[in-house]
Amino acid sequence: MQSPLLPHPDRCFIAGDWVKPASGTTIAVTDPSTGAPLVEIAKGGANDIDAAVAAARAAFEGDWGRMPAAERGRILARIGALVQENVEALAELEARDVGKPLTQARNDAIALARYMEFYAGSADKLMGETIPYLEGYTVYTLREAHGVTGHIIPWNYPMQIIGRSVGAALTTGNACVLKPAEEACLTALAFAELAHRAGLPAGALNVVPGLGEEAGAALSGHGGVDHLSFTGSVPVGKLIQKAAADHVVPVTLELGGKSPQVVFADADLDAALPFLVNAGIQNAGQTCSASSRILVEASRYAEVVEKMAARYAALRCGPAMDDLDVGPLVSAAQKEIVEGFLNLSDGLEVAAQGTIADDAPAGGAYVAPRLFAAKDPSHRLAQDEIFGPVQLVIPFADEDEATAIANGTDFGLVASCWTRDGARQMRMARKLRAGQVFLNNYGAGGGVELPFGGRGLSGHGREKGFEALYGFTTLKTVAALHG
Ligand code: NAP
Ligand code: MG
C-alpha cells in the first residue's frame, strides 16, 4: 500500500531514521475488509528494541532531555498541526489497516491532533510545590521525566492511544519506544514520520513493529526502560506487570472492560438510546470502554429492548471504506473469538441483529451486530469481555440490585447512569466501581481532557488529561537547610 506518510512501511523508525529490522524479515498484513494482502511491515525483535532503547537514552541525555519545557510544547504543537493537516490520509490508512469505518477512523486522527494540542499546551504548566517544614528549611518538589518510556499498544485505537500515552510522555520530556500491534502499525509509523517532519529530535520517539512475544517482550523486559505503559488484554497485561517487577519500574496498565450503562425508569430514553447502542457497536465493539451491558429498571425493560432492537435491525455492516455503521473485525482471528462467544449464548434471547451488506467481500472479517435480552447477569457473555459488536440488556429491580449487577464483574473501567433524579445521580457516581462515570451520557473513554483508567482487571494508573503527566513523571523532594 502506498501512502505519502509511509516512506518505508517495512522498516522500523529508530534514531530519526527508517532502518531495516535486524531480522531482515517482514510480517504480511491483511486488509480485514477483504482478506486480501495489504502491506508488509518490519518484523522487529530484540536487536531492534536494543537499538531503539539506546537511541531513546541518547535523546533523553542529549538535546531532547535538556530542552526547555516550552520548546518541547512548541514541537508537540507542530506535530499536532501536521496530524490535523493529514487527517484524511491517516484516516484512510487506519480504515484499510484496522477495518474501521472511515468516519470513525477520521475521528481517531482528529483526536490524535487534539491530544498533541492538549499536551503541547501543558508542557510548561506542570509544576512542583513548596512545602512548609521546619524552621530554617525551604522544601520544594520537582517533577522529572522518568527517562526512557516503553509503550506497547493494541490494534483497536492506535492513534488515540499514541496520543494519550506517547503525547503525555513526550511533553514531560521522556524519550519513547513504541511497539504497536502487528495488526495495526501503519498510523504509528505515519505518526513517527509526521513527528520527524515537525522537528522532533532524533531518538525522542522510536517505533519498532513486530510480534508481541518478540519485540513486545524484548521491550517490556528491557533493563534500559524506566517506565512501561501497556494497553491491551488482561493476560498480556499480567506479563507486562511481571516484567516491570523484574526491573522495579512503574507500569500503567489499561486493560479491558465490561462497562455497564444503568437506565432507571425515570430516564430520558430518547436521549439515552443513541448512547446505549453506539457505545456497544463503535469500532465493531472492539473498544476497551465499550458498553456491553445495558442494565434497565424492570418497569421499562421491555420498552428499552424493543427500542434498541429497532436500532439494531437498521445497523449495516460492510467494508471500512464504505463507511457504514459497523466495519469488519480487525482480523479473521478476532472474528473467530467473537463467534466462539456467540456459540455460548444458550439461555440468552436474541433481540435483534444487524445486517452484513450483500456486496461485502466474502474474505472480510464481518460479524453482524447482535443484541441479547438477558435475565441472568452471571451468564458468561455478561461477564467476559467479548470485544465484538455484542450487547446484553439485563433487568434490575432497584438501585441496590442495579449497583450489584453493575459492579458484579472483575472489571471496572467505565460506567454510566441514566436518571433525572439528582440525588440518585450523585449516589450512583459514588457507588459505581469504575475509573470514569458518566451521568446521562456515555463517553467511551471521553475526551482528551478526561483522566481515564481502570479498577480491578481493567488495570491501574491513569492516562489522558492533565493527570497523565503525574504518571509520566517522578517526584523529587528537595529539602534545603539554610538556617
Ligand atoms: P494484546 O494481545 O494484549 O496485545 C496488546 C499489545 O501487546 C500488542 O502490541 C501485542 O503485540 C503486545 N503483546 C502481545 N504479547 C506480548 C508479550 N508477551 N509481551 C509484550 N507484548 C505483547 O491485546 P489486543 O488483542 O491487541 O487488544 C485487545 C485487548 O486489549 C482487549 O482485551 C481490550 O479490552 C484491551 N484494550 C484495552 C484498552 C484500554 O485502554 N483499557 C484499549 C484497547 C484495548 P502483537 O499484537 O503484535 O502480538
Ligand atoms: Mg490490519
Put the structure in a nutshell.
The chain is of the alpha/beta class and 483 residues long.
Model description:
The chain has 2 domains: 12-255, Aldehyde Dehydrogenase, Chain A, domain 1, CATH 3.40.605.10; 260-447, Aldehyde Dehydrogenase, Chain A, domain 2, CATH 3.40.309.10. Helix content is 38%, strand content 21%. It is built from 16 helices and 22 strands. Magnesium ion (MG) is lined by residues 29, 32, 97-98, 183-184. Residues 29, 32, 97-98, 183-184 line the site of magnesium ion.
CATH class assignment of the largest domain: Alpha Beta
CATH topology group of the largest domain: Aldehyde Dehydrogenase, Chain A, domain 1
Overall 3D form: globular
Give me the number of helical elements: 16
Mean pLDDT: 97
Number of domains: 2
**What summary fits the major beta sheet?**
7 strands, mixed
Radius of gyration: 23 Å
Report, as a whole number of angstroms, the end-to-end distance: 68 Å
Classification by helices and strands: alpha/beta
Low-confidence stretches: none
Quote the beta fraction.
15-25%
Record keyword descriptors for this entry:
483 residues, alpha/beta, Aldehyde Dehydrogenase, Chain A, domain 1, Aldehyde Dehydrogenase, Chain A, domain 2, 7-stranded mixed beta sheet, 6-stranded mixed beta sheet, 16 helices, 21% strand, binds NADP nicotinamide-adenine-dinucleotide phosphate, binds magnesium ion
